[in-house]
Amino acid sequence: MSDLNVTLVYPGVAGRGFNSLKQGMDAGWISHGLASLSAAAKARGFDVNLIDLRALSGWDHFRELLAERNPDVVGLTMMSVDYNPVQRSCEIVKEFNPNITTIVGGPHVTIALGDSLRLPNVDYLVTHEAEITFPRLLEAIERGGAPPHQVVRGEPPDLDAIPFTDRDLFLDEWRKFGYDLDSPEVPFVAELPPPFLTIIAGRGCVYNCAFCKPGEDYIFGKQSRRRSVENVIEELALLRDKYHFASFMFHDDCLTEDREWVIEFTRRYREEAFDQPFFCQSRADIIVKHEDMVDRMIEAGLGGYFIGFESGNPRVLMKVLRKGTTVEQNYQAAEICRKKGVTIWANYMLGIPTETKEEVMDTVRMLKKIDPDYYSPAFFTPHPGTDLFDYVVEHNLSRISSYDSYRRNPTEPKIRGQDYEFLKWAREESQRRTPLNSVKRWLRRQRRRFTWAKLKRKLGLARPTDGADGQQRGVPVPGSVGS
Ligand code: B12
Ligand code: SF4
Q1: Ligand number, closest to the Cα atom of 205
Q2: Residues 337 and 421 in one domain
Q3: pLDDT tens figures, 32-46
Q4: What is the domain count for the chain?
Q5: Which one of 79, 174, 198, 389 would you pick to mutate in the ligand 1 pocket, going by the greatest count of ligand atoms within 8 A of its CB?
Q6: Total-model pTM
Q7: Buried/exposed code over 330-362 (b: 16+ C-beta within 10 A; e: otherwise)
Q8: Element containing residue 363 per DSSP (H, E)
């Protein structure tokens, strides 16, 4: 056991601010990056604890916790949006005790190293993945032989060889601050009942969308890497025993990119008698090309897909966003999901650079036709490390003046030349269901309700607490973007 006391800091307060625990995805989900580093450091004998800024009341509270934890090392994770809270945290840490070693890692460090080097009060910047490198750095610090240079390059680990994510790092900490859900993470749609959790089966994505790439390739490499099916099943079995989860979600950028992996996963999932529903990310082109895979996923428990429909205009979708899908595929994918009863969470963007109002209207019309279960609109945001970020900078199109605004929130102007009053109207209009769609939805719900209730009666499964549609009542739906 090491004597080094390590505190990890989750800085995600740029969006919902302090005191935001339990408020949906942004403030009710763990950081797999930190939880994975915690597991790796604990496996090497380090004592690791967490300060999650989302659970605190403000910076004075952070100071109090620092005094309580009295760390030797503070490690912080940083997306671009986290830059300001990370800067402030490091400043406070050094004010409290200049001898504490501060280490910052995470997407922004790898994607924008030059920018990260400007952060004061940081002793080490660790780029890339760090399950191997972080514990080694801690060992070096403990030995008094820490590297003389500030930047340390992380070594990519074998994903089957690293310890499973340390979820209790977050849950135990949250419990001290009034997290009272019987769920390791906050559920967000009624289709995924608590106890709910998130899991990651791999890293990276093979596609090349201009609003997302190449940033992630810098972190994880151009090819995605996946854990073996057995490794994921083993973790799920442990999670079932420990948390009795009733549903979960894959965080992978695009789980369905590897059809063979998914088919094997569904086979093993059923074989191991899992029946918990799950959601994952997919793409319209994949759903259209691999309907057989969709069927296998449904048999295993697929509840819904997050689909990046992005735009209803062919020029914007293919040329500007470089999504690699067509508008026609968007419609076909939605039709397949509807036909098979797969819930659709629709991601799409408004206010994309060079997008005209008529092109925005194509997206509004697309949403009416798709009629998703959940709408997730974003105002296009140029994220550092992406080709569209470079385009926006080159053409002086960015209206972003603070790191806090590197969020896809559909409330704030991001791009010069876009009419945000119109976009706000378009955002609302895109989510207004047509009367015909509302009737169709109602009919579909009734059909499901009767089939399910009949089936349950036949099997003798009906419980007094169940609604006629089989959904548990009283399930919180925080953070849901559903209409
Ligand atoms: C799951 C996820 C989410 C979840 C959960 C986020 C969370 N709490 O971690 C949700 C949905 C909430 C989310 C929200 C957002 N996300 Co997000 N998200 C992801 C996703 C898909 C997986 C993250 C993950 O767990 N990866 C696996 C872990 C193991 O990797 P990792 O976190 O990078 O950690 C490794 C290294 O970076 C490093 N490391 C990380 N931290 C530290 C700390 C130290 C001390 C050290 C030494 C090393 C180190 O070591 C880790 C282990 O190897 C990634 C894409 C991806 N594949 O990574 C995007 C991604 C991280 N998200 C992104 C964005 C933009 C956002 C949002 C801003 C989007 C929005 N809504 O506007 C918000 C911001 C939320 C906030 N902070 O307020 C971008 C970040 C780009 C950037 N330039 O920063 C990514 C890369 C997606 C993309 N390609 O655009 N996100
Ligand atoms: S937007 Fe999705 S599919 Fe496209 S590159 Fe990013 S993660 Fe991959």
Answers
A1: 2
A2: yes
A3: 999 999 999 999 999
A4: 2
A5: 79
A6: 0.94
A7: bbbbbebbbeeebbbbbbbbbbbbebeeebbbb
A8: helix 357-370
